[in-house]
Design brief:
Keywords: Isomerase, Manganese, Metal-binding. The protein contains 15 helices and ten strands. It binds alpha-D-psicofuranose (PSV) and manganese (II) ion (2 copies).
Length: about 400
């Protein structure tokens, strides 16, 4: 790919950041208070706008309801727009209320399921008011012990609820169904892997697609293969980018697994250029989102680094010599194919990205720009250090 096309592609990249990444959060053991951490949704949006100002490719922010609940969502939308960002995916929260102890849409008690579905439908309405395209669904549902509940009955309850929400979605919007290997349910999670999410989406309808959170797999799972499969089936809806070492610890994306991130982007770039209409359209509509709650890192800085790591992986994937790769694959030349990929992966794209930023009027090094801008000191002065919890906060 020549530099002109590459720069154009880089300019079209979009990474959404999550409101919950800007507030104080921690592990089960401790939430450390960060000076200047956002205290409400308006401050979270201000921080997301700062990430966009620095990187130029993070123009939307995902909301979590009710953490980000407001009286007037149209006003919130205008507020975001006045800061140069838009409202992205709406994430309903059906895991923090006491009635959800045994689950939400998989709960054996009909009233509890109805309460969860009502909240999901409220979130569809919030999508309308905020101009959001995606309802992003993650459920903490599952069981801790064999025999605790009927696994097939739970599957059916989940299907019924998802169907009702799907059918309420306005045209042009979608539901992204996220899966997770385990936690907080430790015996059986109702949406336990991509296959379960995919099967539900397939049965429910065209507005349902799978969301791949990089943190939600067993260690040896080949995520890029899942991505390729779902792209080819037209059912890849979005990503939650982060890095996982043990479970759902939501670390800065690409820090421990840069090659995996590159291979995922390679599948996306290949699909974006595919001659197959469904695959190409699916790839072009993928929602790229970060899902991280930083525990010990400065929050805005960590988010900027995550966005930059996505950009770096994407730039490297754009450099793949696809003709050389296809020829090697056809010839059965295993090593030449591997070397073609790794030639792109090993390219130092930092000078090129700095040049792209210069050409866009962005800071060459967004982290340095942030550190010298005074933004952090300002918000620390204005917002102070909010009281943070001991152990067991809302989100691990
Ligand atoms: C919990 O695992 C989780 O990290 C999921 O990945 C959700 O997407 C996120 O929380 C927000 O609810
Ligand atoms: Mn997630
Ligand atoms: Mn997670």
């Amino acid at each position: 790919m020549n530099t002109h096309d590459l720069f154009q592609a880089l300019g079209q990249q979009r990474i959404e950041t999550p409101s919950w990444g800007y507030g104080n959060s921690g592990t089960r053991f401790k939430t450390f208070a960060a000076p200047g951490a956002a205290r409400d949704v308006h401050e979270k949006i201000e921080d997301a706008a700062e990430v966009h100002r620095l990187t130029g490719i993070a123009p939307s922010v995902a909301l979590h309801i009710p953490w980000d609940e407001v009286e007037d969502y149209a006003e919130l939308r205008r507020f975001a727009e006045s800061r140069g960002v838009s409202i992205g995916a709406i994430n309903p929260n059906v895991f923090q209320d006491d009635p959800y102890k045994l689950g939400s849409i998989g709960n054996p008690v009909p009233n509890v399921r109805e309460r969860a579905i009502a909240h999901l439908l409220d979130c569809v309405e919030i999508m309308r008011q905020t101009g959001s395209r995606d309802l992003s669904l993650w459920f903490a549902d599952g069981t801790n012990y064999a025999g605790q509940d009927d696994l097939r009955a739970r599957k059916r309850r989940v299907r019924e609820a998802l169907q009702r929400v799907h059918d309420a979605l306005p045209d042009g919007t979608r539901m992204l169904v996220e899966y997770k290997l385990f936690e907080p349910a430790f015996y059986a999670t109702d949406l336990f892997d991509w296959g379960a999410a995919y099967a539900h989406c397939l049965a429910i309808g065209d507005k349902a697609q799978v969301l791949v959170d990089l943190g939600h797999h067993a260690q040896s799972v080949n995520i890029e293969q899942i991505v390729a499969f779902l792209l080819d089936e037209g059912r890849l809806g979005g990503f939650h980018f982060n890095a996982r070492r043990y479970a759902d610890d939501d670390l800065i994306v690409g820090t421990t697994n840069p090659f995996e991130l590159f291979c995922i982007y390679a599948e996306l770039v290949a699909a974006e250029q595919s001659s197959d209409n469904l695959t190409r359209t699916t790839a072009r509509n993928v929602a790229y989102m970060i899902d991280q709650s930083h525990n010990i890192e400065p929050k805005v800085e960590a988010m900027v680094q995550s966005v930059l790591n996505c950009q770096e992986a994407y730039a490297k994937a754009l450099l793949i010599d696809w003709e050389r790769l296809a020829a090697a694959q056809q010839a059965g030349d295993v090593l030449e194919a591997y070397r073609t990929l790794t030639d792109a992966f090993r390219t130092d794209v930092r000078p090129l990205l700095a040049e792209w930023r210069r050409s866009e009027g962005l800071p060459e090094d967004p982290i340095v720009a942030h550190r010298t801008s005074g933004y952090q000191a300002n918000v620390a002065g204005e917002r102070g250090t909010a009281a943070a919890g001991g152990g067991f906060p809302v989100k691990s």
